[in-house]
Amino acid sequence: MGEPVVRVGAATDVGLVRSVNEDNYLVTGTVFAVADGMGGHAAGDVASGLAVAGLASLGTEGPVRPDDVRRHVMGLNRDILDAAARNPAQAGMGTTLTGLCLADFAGSAHWVVFNVGDSRVYRFAGGELAQLTVDHSEVAELVASGELSEAEAADDVRRNVVTRALGAGVAPEPDLLVFPPAAGDRFLLCSDGLTGELDSAAIAAVLAAVADPQAAADQLVRAAVDAGGRDNVTVVIVDHVRQDTAP
Fold it and tell me: Which one of 33, 131, 209, 247 is least enclosed by Cβ atoms within 10 Å?
């Protein structure tokens, strides 16, 4: 099946407040992801590292279908729980996980966006930035119910409380979004260290102005740190350059 030809850039920074970078990211030929670890001294960096390491094997044993993505992401929950059981100091660690991968759907290549937690995937196309994932967070639920405005949610003390994460007692169900690739699409994967510092207009301005994906990733991370850097910041940018016409 013909697949998208992509260019990728990635960057991460510990920020100005945290002492440890608990974010991790993954870039392979077909799988791209960001994980934001939780647990502080309970090893959030270990949890996010386990998530991306386990995800790296997706697709290495043959064609991937959307339900394979779902099962694989849910299986990572056990990896984290097992690691914590071996090392009690890591009990309670967890991580978000979001990203996209190429999969076979109805005989052709499709993107699968997956998400657990409040890290995000955006698509930038035609000058418009659209969030493709839904935050699994307490404030997102309050905004959806009308109890908080977007502006209030940005400063709410509950903004870092996630309602779905890997490392839970019961494996969380990831959200999946499946759609055909389109040349010219640019995807932004990020931890909330980016969106906590920069609004959508600022992010879109960089994506529009900086064509090279690595330069754009570097600039977004730098801007988030300059704006306050209250959290770890991680960005992966995937540009669909053209479609491979190979059968």
Answer: 247
- pTM, two decimal places: 0.95
Degrees (nearest 5) of the Cα angle 133, 137, 143? 85
Amino acid letter for position 147: E
Rounded to whole angstroms, the Cα distance separating 111 from 208 reads 22
Give pLDDT tens digits for 15-57. 999 999 999 999 999 999 999 999 765 699 999 999 999 999 9
Q: Which residues contact 71 (CB under 8 A, 6 or more apart)?
A: none
Q: How far apart are CA 46 and CA 84, in angstroms?
A: 10
* Spatial CA neighbour of 188 closest among 165, 221, 163, 160: 221
- d(C-alpha 121, C-alpha 190), whole Å: 7
- List, for residues 4-13, the tens digit of each pLDDT value: 999 999 999 9
Which residue in this structure is represented by tokens 């309602």? 163
